[in-house]
């Protein structure tokens, strides 16, 4: 056999002791090991030369011979895992005939060692201190006598080098001997020729490279990297501090203080590394990382995904293309065979061939077999033959993401002995924590009442006993136990044995939801929901009990409150609504259907239960394609041509031009814009990614036709025409007669390569995707205030190294912010669909999501509709228009009076009559608003422009801020009465108060202020939750009113005014909104006779852009970029950030944004500032006590 290029002589037939002796003779000063001097890596590393190491080995060998005597047999070292059970350890020691235990000097024996020494007589030998065996002064080793090792390869090939053992996941642990012959196969990998352009995995492990492994030396991978591969490949091995378990902080410090070329990491640590953007760039200087996970890691440092076994080590792995890092390729000489066991699922076998000595290490361990079943399952790459991805094991072992293997059989048998349990399955392969799915003998047992906890507790006592007897103690946690779903019994054989794989497939979606509900934002409500409860959504009584149980697990006061009690008055806030909604949706399979807006629409336990029953009923009658018009039998019998006709009719109906409703005209003739940051997978060209975005948008325009439309003025000849009316005009379907075809390159999307203009994606991520990093005009040329007609959508895909910044602008008449995000989610899902994800059909989108008549229909039916004259005129304070009656009063006066008093356009000088007062909800008098004199808004008179400024409040500071306000709340004697009316303060209230005061303080001009000056903060409020519980959950058209809070500038900015008082004002304002108010506002909108944008009246217009104290406030804290969903496939990863396009806003408005909560729990605050205002904020002691300036 020819020796490969760069391979050493006798490669594959070398003995490690002789390799080290030869190195000590030829390169005695070469550093082969370094180890940390202390847990503080800045203290440096101690370096060990080849000469010092071999002499230390000689010294230790003589010591062992002196202490243990001379013997003719090979006595190899056994590396016993400290995670073993006593029974497992004893089994390994017995099978390996091990009767000597060697422990480090001065180290206290572990409990495991003490336990097995009590049951197995062994000679215990203590090694000397390291300094005695390997002194730092090498001169002390000068007299070390070489310990001879003169065996030839042929004589030593079957000698044991060391002994490891199996994990014990399928029974008691068994020893595994690593022979010199087995180890030689690792050396021989360099002799493999390339296969189809792919090099063997040993390519790139170059002489002199530094290696650091996070695996302990009790683990096979740790021995392989630190003891075997290092000398075979001539590597410099780095060892971390002995008293520190490898973690991200250690990885970061290691990268800072010593050069690492090759990293070897456990999977769970690699996953954590992928979520550490501050550490990842440090590894980019390395060559690669050996790991079995890490798409995000692969962006910074190439991932080599190796697979092997304790019995065969690494067999035939090849380097694959970087973007295919999670797929395996194997050299044909490895002898692997993938046998189909199910459609598209293969089991891995190996068959002995002529290359066994060098390239089939398994047959050195199992010398008497010719074929071996690994029982590992794989799937094949859909387009690249020869690439395989791991898909679990064919046996029953649960393999967790951290590599732990759990044999479930004994645990399942014990738990099934409970009288109420018919069967159970351990779940959790690929997850960080094992779980348990239980099937009860009596499926009719109510699990939503008070007896549920007693039942669960009795089962839990058996689980605890099973835990105590298992190999991995506490392998099952109380929060990771679920019950089977009603109507979905476990699948069994004729002998009633559970068919594990079939049942797992049946419950795949349920298990995935189960683990999603126990993610980073795990909460007690979700535990209660999936652990104890199964809601019978056909029964209102059952559903009501279960809903109350979930709500009470979040806010205990719910348990004793009346069923019709307003939940916001007993402790719920926006964050808790989010948690409760998630819990209820998870257990009822109403994800994406039961939403926070359903909670807000009826914030009582009984109303929520009724909504759940209704939504579940609607869900049951929906067919797979989302239609409810006919039964499945009728559909099967339907004429195929008639079906096509109906489908085409539906498409034509969807393209009918739609006149905008009263709320659609709320926002004015302008675009709203965001930038979405999406990472590209390695190796993907900009053109490939852009093509996917184009094709995805074409499909999205079929599902959401408005995206392809134009906003056009209505004709004055239309019936019911009002000045300023507009409609959405949609393109027709392709015509055979005219020869038109579907457009494959929509004009609404443009391409731009900014890779040489703006920082790379990794750099932008590292800086937190700062809004101020570069001007928005680089990303989009969309006009802020367009002339009509204009496109609904204006998008630009901006590509940078490693990612795409997708600038999206939609016309405010067409969608509000929620609608824009729903449309973007559809676009992302369509991109996944055209890449082959057949499940990405957007069926979750309600067919009436863009029916702009829905609000009017529900308004007439909900019971709050009334003539505008019966509406409390103070409701005008929630709209961006003036009260027409008041306006006429002023016009009947002289024009000068109107110009000065038109600011009072919200009814604050209009007394409601007696009939109206009866309908009032104790609304306050609205603030006096500045008149809007220009549209588009005029720029500042001094020519200056605001600059985007971002501050961050860390999770710790956020908690401190909230606690400081809570302290003030507790000390306020009025708190109790206020809380009964408006509920306790939420984090959103506190943040709004904190941000509002700081922004106004920065702008305030004391010399220009008077005691009458007011500061108004306006918050566009999504009223879908309040309008109607029957409103489609994915309604995309505008559904917003303007909630306002105001306070005198002097009081707001005064250090004598507590943040608690300001937050309480914010809280009170939010609690004013209810269904009647929203419908009253809708009544008033119908009376607007002029919808021209210049007819708007808001505080953030007018003087707001100058130095006035008014602001527009948007809280995006609960939104996450990942909510959009991945653009999918092999092209994109999930969006990582969404940022507001601030440059145009800073030219027109005063805006304050609370950005989505960061992964570290912190919150970012974004606003536009002048230089002196930014300085003022940086010097605001109260503000900077909690906030930090980012840029």
Automatic annotation (TrEMBL):
Record Pfam families: AMP-binding, AMP-binding_C_3, Transferase, TRI-like_N
Keywords: NADP, Phosphopantetheine, Phosphoprotein, Transferase
Domain Trichothecene 3-O-acetyltransferase-like N-terminal as annotated: residue spans: 680-831
The keyword Transferase is assigned to this record: yes
Annotated AMP-dependent synthetase/ligase domain residues: 88-301
InterPro entries the record matches: Adenylate-forming_Reductase (IPR051414), AMP-binding_CS (IPR020845), AMP-dep_synth/lig_dom (IPR000873), ANL_N_sf (IPR042099), CAT-like_dom_sf (IPR023213), Tri101-like_N (IPR054710)
Entries under SUPFAM superfamilies matching the protein: Acetyl-CoA synthetase-like
Top-level division of the source organism's lineage: Eukaryota
Gene Ontology molecular functions: transferase activity
Name of the protein: Nonribosomal peptide synthetase (Component of the myxochelin iron transport regulon)
Organism: Fusarium mexicanum
């Amino acid at each position: 056999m020819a020796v490969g290029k760069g391979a050493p002589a006798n490669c594959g037939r070398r003995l490690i002791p002789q390799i080290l002796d030869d190195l000590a003779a030829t390169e005695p000063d070469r550093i082969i090991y370094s180890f940390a001097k202390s847990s503080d890596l800045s203290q440096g590393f101690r370096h060990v030369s080849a000469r010092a190491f071999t002499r230390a080995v000689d010294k230790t060998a003589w010591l062992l011979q002196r202490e243990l005597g001379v013997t003719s047999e090979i006595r190899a070292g056994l590396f016993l895992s400290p995670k073993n059970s006593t029974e497992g350890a004893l089994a390994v020691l017995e099978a390996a005939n091990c009767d000597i235990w060697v422990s480090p000097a001065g180290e206290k024996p572990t409990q495991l060692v003490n336990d097995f020494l009590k049951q197995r007589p062994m000679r215990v030998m203590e090694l000397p201190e390291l300094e005695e065996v390997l002194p730092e002064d090498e001169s002390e080793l000068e007299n070390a006598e070489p310990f001879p090792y003169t065996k030839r390869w042929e004589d030593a090939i079957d000698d044991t080098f060391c002994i490891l053992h199996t994990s014990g996941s399928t029974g008691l642990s068994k020893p595994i001997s690593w022979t010199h012959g087995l180890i030689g196969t690792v050396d021989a990998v360099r002799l493999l020729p390339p296969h189809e352009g792919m090099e063997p995995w040993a390519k790139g492990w170059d002489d002199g490279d530094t290696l650091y492994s996070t695996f302990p030396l009790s683990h096979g991978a740790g021995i392989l990297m630190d003891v075997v591969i290092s000398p075979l490949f001539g590597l410099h091995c780095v060892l971390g501090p002995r008293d520190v378990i490898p973690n991200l902080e250690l990885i970061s410090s290691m990268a800072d203080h010593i050069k690492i070329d090759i990293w070897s990491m456990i999977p769970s640590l690699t996953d954590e590394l992928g979520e550490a953007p501050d550490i990842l760039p440090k590894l980019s200087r390395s060559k690669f990382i050996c790991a079995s996970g890490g798409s995000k890691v692969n962006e910074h440092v190439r991932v080599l995904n190796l697979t092997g076994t304790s019995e065969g080590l690494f067999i035939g792995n090849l380097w694959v293309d970087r973007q295919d890092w999670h797929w395996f390729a194997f050299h044909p000489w490895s002898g692997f065979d993938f046998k189909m066991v199910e459609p598209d699922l293969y089991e891995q076998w190996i068959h002995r061939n002529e290359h066994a000595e060098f390239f089939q290490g398994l047959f050195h361990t199992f010398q008497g077999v010719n074929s071996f079943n690994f029982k590992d399952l794989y799937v094949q790459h859909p387009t690249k033959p020869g690439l395989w991805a791991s898909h679990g094991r064919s046996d029953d072992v649960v393999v967790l993401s951290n590599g732990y293997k759990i044999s479930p059989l004994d645990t399942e048998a014990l738990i099934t002995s409970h009288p109420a349990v018919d069967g159970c399955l351990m779940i959790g392969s690929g997850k960080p924590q094992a779980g348990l799915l239980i099937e009860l003998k009596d499926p009719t047992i109510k699990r939503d009442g008070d007896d549920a906890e007693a039942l669960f507790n009795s089962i839990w006592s058996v689980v605890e006993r099973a835990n105590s007897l298992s190999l991995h103690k506490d392998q099952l946690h109380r929060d990771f136990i679920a019950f089977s779903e009603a109507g979905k019994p476990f699948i069994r054989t004729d002998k009633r044995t559970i068919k594990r794989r079939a049942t797992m497939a049946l419950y795949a979606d349920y298990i995935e939801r189960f683990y999603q509900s126990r993610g980073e934002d795990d909460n007690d409500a979700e535990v209660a929901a999936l652990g104890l409860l199964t809601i019978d959504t056909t029964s209102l009584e059952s559903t009501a009990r279960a809903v109350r149980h979930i709500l009470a697990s979040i806010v205990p006061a719910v348990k004793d409150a009346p069923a019709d009690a307003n939940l916001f008055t007993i402790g719920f806030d926006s964050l808790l609504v989010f948690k409760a909604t998630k819990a209820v949706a998870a257990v009822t399979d109403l994800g994406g259907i039961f939403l926070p807006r359903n909670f807000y629409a009826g914030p009582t336990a009984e109303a929520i239960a009724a909504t759940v029953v209704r939504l579940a009923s609607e869900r049951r009658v929906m067919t797979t394609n989302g239609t409810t018009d006919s039964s499945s039998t009728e559909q099967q019998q339907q004429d195929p041509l008639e079906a096509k006709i109906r489908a085409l009719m539906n498409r034509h109906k969807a393209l009918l031009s739609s006149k905008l409703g009263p709320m659609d005209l709320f926002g004015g003739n302008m675009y709203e814009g965001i930038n979405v940051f999406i990472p590209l997978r390695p190796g993907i060209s900009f053109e490939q990614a852009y093509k996917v975005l184009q094709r995805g948008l074409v499909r999205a325009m079929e599902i959401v036709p408005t995206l392809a439309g134009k906003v056009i003025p209505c004709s004055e000849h239309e019936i019911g025409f009002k000045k300023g009316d507009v409609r959405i005009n949609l393109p027709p379907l392709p015509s055979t007669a005219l020869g038109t075809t579907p457009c494959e390159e929509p004009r609404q999307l443009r391409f731009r390569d900014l890779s040489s203009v703006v920082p790379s994606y990794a750099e932008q991520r590292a800086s937190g995707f700062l809004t101020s990093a570069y001007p928005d005009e680089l990303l989009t040329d969309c006009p802020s205030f367009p002339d009509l007609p204009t496109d609904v959508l204006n998008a630009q895909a901006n590509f940078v190294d490693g990612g795409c910044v997708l600038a999206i602008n939609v016309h405010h008449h067409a969608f509000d912010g929620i609608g824009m995000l729903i449309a973007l989610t559809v676009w992302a899902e369509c991109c996944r669909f055209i890449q082959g994800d057949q499940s990405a059909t957007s069926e979750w989108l309600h067919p009436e999501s863009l029916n702009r008549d829905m609000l009017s229909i529900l308004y007439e039916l909900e019971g709050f509709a009334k003539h505008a004259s019966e509406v409390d005129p103070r409701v005008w304070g929630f709209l961006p228009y003036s009260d027409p009656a008041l306006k006429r009063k002023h016009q009947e006066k002289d024009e000068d009076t109107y110009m000065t008093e038109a600011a009072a356009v919200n009814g604050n000088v209009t007394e409601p009559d007696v009939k109206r007062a009866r309908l009032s909800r104790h609304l306050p008098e609205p603030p006096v608003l500045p008149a809007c004199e220009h549209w588009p808004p005029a720029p500042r008179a001094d020519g200056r422009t605001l600059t985007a400024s971002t501050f961050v409040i860390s999770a710790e500071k956020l908690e401190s801020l909230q606690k400081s306000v809570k302290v003030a709340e507790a000390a306020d004697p009025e708190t109790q009465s206020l809380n009964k009316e408006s509920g306790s303060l939420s984090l959103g209230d506190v943040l709004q108060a904190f941000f509002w005061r700081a922004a106004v303080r920065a702008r305030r001009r004391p010399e220009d202020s008077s005691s009458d000056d007011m500061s108004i903060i306006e918050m566009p409020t999504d009223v879908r939750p309040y309008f109607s519980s029957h409103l489609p959950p994915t309604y995309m058209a505008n559904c917003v009113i303007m909630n306002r809070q105001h306070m005198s500038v002097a009081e707001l900015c005064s250090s004598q005014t507590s943040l608690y008082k300001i937050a309480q004002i914010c809280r009170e304002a939010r609690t004013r909104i209810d269904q009647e108010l929203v419908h009253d506002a809708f009544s008033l909108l119908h009376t607007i006779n002029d919808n021209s944008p210049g007819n708007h009246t808001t505080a953030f217009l007018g003087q707001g852009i100058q130095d006035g104290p008014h602001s527009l406030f948007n809280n995006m804290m609960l939104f996450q970029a990942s909510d959009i969903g991945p653009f999918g496939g092999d092209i994109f990863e999930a969006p990582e950030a969404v940022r507001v396009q601030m440059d145009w806003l800073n030219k027109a408005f005063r805006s304050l944004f609370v950005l989505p909560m960061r992964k570290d729990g912190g919150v970012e605050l974004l606003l536009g500032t002048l230089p002196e205002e930014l300085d003022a904020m940086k010097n605001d002691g109260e503000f900077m006590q909690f906030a930090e300036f980012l840029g």
